[in-house]
Design a protein that fits this description.
Layout (H helix, E strand, L loop, with lengths): L1 E4 L5 E4 L1 H13 L8 H10 L5 H5 L3 E2 L4 E2 L7 H19 L1 H20 L7 H25 L3 H23 L3 E4 L2 E7 L2 E5 L7 E11 L6 H7 L5 E9 L2
Parallel strand pairs: 7-9
Antiparallel strand pairs: 1-2, 2-8, 3-4, 5-6, 6-7, 8-9
Helix pairs in contact: 1-2, 1-7, 2-5, 4-5, 4-6, 5-6, 5-7
């Protein structure tokens, strides 16, 4: 769950697959059109399919009174979930989409470890490194079956990483965030500037649905009881260039 605290003490909680809807909207509007186009867009929309089961029944974080945040999972928890999601993507969306979801897992781990965003414990680090090693081998086999080479696949992965970062920054309430080769700067709660501007129009509007949590829950039982009836809110963002 992507948690965005609000000034009134409430929280906007966006399931990971819901933020991926924004990533798909952005992928469709890149000035440098991804090819093949439809698999790239599908990969953007489905890149967080590994989270679907988790977000249906989020775990309670007793330290915050909220569902556990997406970045609170350890490597030992995240890696098996991600590998199951990759298998689902390969089975349902095709080899290229599955390949891009698989590679995105490694992108997440590299970004966190090498980018200094996380300092995983030894067991978590080992789980992430094991995943990245397996992804290299499996990814090479899938590319061979597709008749594609790294020079063709890497730009698609880079574009997926960028649109994912933009969608994450928006739903997470980040004031300033690195999004690939660009930087996102929030200029209002539901508006942001991206520089350099990578899209095919001077401005864009994107949207997805989030849950509105009025206040922290007393305990896990209270969260489970309230969850199905939590109010929903459409998050509509306006993006522009410098």
């Amino acid at each position: 769950m992507i948690l965005w605290p609000q000034p009134d003490g409430s929280v906007l909680a966006t399931p990971q697959p819901a933020h991926a809807i924004i990533a798909g909207q952005l992928m469709r509007r890149l000035a440098e059109r991804p090819e093949p186009f439809e698999p790239a867009v599908t990969a953007a929309i489905e890149h967080d399919c590994p989270w679907q089961a988790w977000e249906m029944a989020p775990e309670f974080d007793k330290a915050t009174g909220l569902p556990r945040a997406f970045n609170a999972l350890s490597g030992e928890e995240h890696v098996p979930m991600w590998e199951q999601g990759v298998a689902m993507a390969l089975a349902n969306f095709g080899q290229l989409v599955g390949l891009l979801v698989m590679r995105h897992g490694s992108h997440i781990y590299r970004l966190g470890i090498l980018g200094g965003r996380i300092a995983p414990a030894a067991a978590s680090l080992a789980a992430m490194q094991g995943y990245m090693a397996r992804e290299q081998e499996r990814g090479a086999a899938i590319m061979a079956r597709l008749g594609m080479v790294e020079a063709e696949v890497a730009p698609l992965s880079q574009k997926l990483g960028m649109v994912d970062s933009i969608a994450l920054a928006l739903c997470w309430g980040q004031a300033r965030f690195s999004v690939g080769a660009s930087t996102l700067t929030r200029i209002a709660p539901f508006a942001a500037r991206i520089d350099p501007w990578p899209f095919d129009a001077p401005s864009l509007e994107v949207a997805t649905e989030a849950l509105h949590i009025p206040a922290p829950f007393a305990d896990a039982q209270a969260m489970r009881a309230a969850w199905p009836e939590l109010p929903r809110r459409m998050l509509r963002f306006t993006l522009c260039g410098p």
